[in-house]
Specification:
By secondary structure, the protein is an alpha+beta fold. The chain contains eight helices and eight strands, in the order H-H-E-E-E-H-H-E-H-E-H-E-H-H-E-E. The strands form two sheets. The protein has a six-stranded mixed beta sheet with strand order 1-2-3-4-6-5. Helix 4 (86-106) runs antiparallel to helix 8 (186-198).
């Protein structure tokens, strides 16, 4: 005598949908973690290969097109290998790096019509204008790339402020300028560097926004993170 066994593989639609959403987010999270880890461990390699060009301990540029370079205010690797933290230190390293970049332009290392750009959530528009930068909102593809850096930016910002902090996405925008415009603000860079380097450190419980990327550009974590 044969016994027929039937198994109902059907599950409620709501359960299947929740499983799909959970699995998708899990794979997305894993992808972001692996992507950021690879960015972390490859920083020294990219420096040796000349892909990353440092202009100060934290500020570096990356070629992204024939006449365009992306600004970054340090990677997670740089953050942990230096003692830089807080708005004041970031402004010092930003001023130092931009001043060195201006000198490279004057020596002919970079053309004057070179475009610099990056993603920022840390500096105000007023501060960026003092260095010759303009700002604009992120385009869709830039927002997608920024999202890959978001968790790491929140982590680094929390470490810097010594409390759990999330990046306000309303403050995220693209900062950009031409090298010739930056040269017009060279003395401002020098002035900021001199004033901030000489001024005593002021203890504070609050920090103004600073880019991990000045900018995290549409393709990475630029001048700001």
């Amino acid at each position: 005598m044969e016994t027929e066994i039937s198994v109902d593989f059907k599950q409620p639609y709501g359960t299947l949908r929740m499983k799909f959403i959970f699995t998708s987010f899990a794979w997305l999270f894993l992808f972001i973690v692996i992507y950021r880890f690879l960015r972390f461990i490859t920083t020294p390699l990219f420096v040796k290969l000349g892909i990353y060009t440092y202009h100060s301990e934290m500020l570096f540029t990356v070629p992204i097109w024939r006449n365009k370079r992306e600004l970054h205010l340090g990677t997670a690797y740089d953050f942990f290998r230096t003692s830089a933290s807080g708005s004041r230190q970031m402004l010092i390293l930003l001023s130092k790096g931009l001043l060195a970049f201006c000198e490279d332009v004057e020596r002919g290392k970079y053309p004057r019509d070179l475009v610099l750009r990056g993603t920022t959530h840390y500096f105000s528009d007023a501060t960026l204008r003092k260095f010759g930068f303009k700002t604009r909102p992120l385009r869709f593809y830039e927002a997608v790339f920024f999202s890959l850096n978001y968790l790491e930016l929140c982590l680094l910002l929390s470490i810097s402020k010594r409390r759990l902090t999330v990046v306000n996405t309303d403050l995220v925008r693209i900062a950009y300028c031409r090298a010739e415009d930056l040269l017009l603000h060279k003395e401002m860079c020098r002035r900021y560097l001199h004033i901030l380097s000489k001024a005593p450190e002021q203890p504070s419980t609050s920090h103004s926004p600073v880019p991990v990327a000045l900018l995290s550009s549409g393709t990475s974590d630029s001048l700001a993170a």
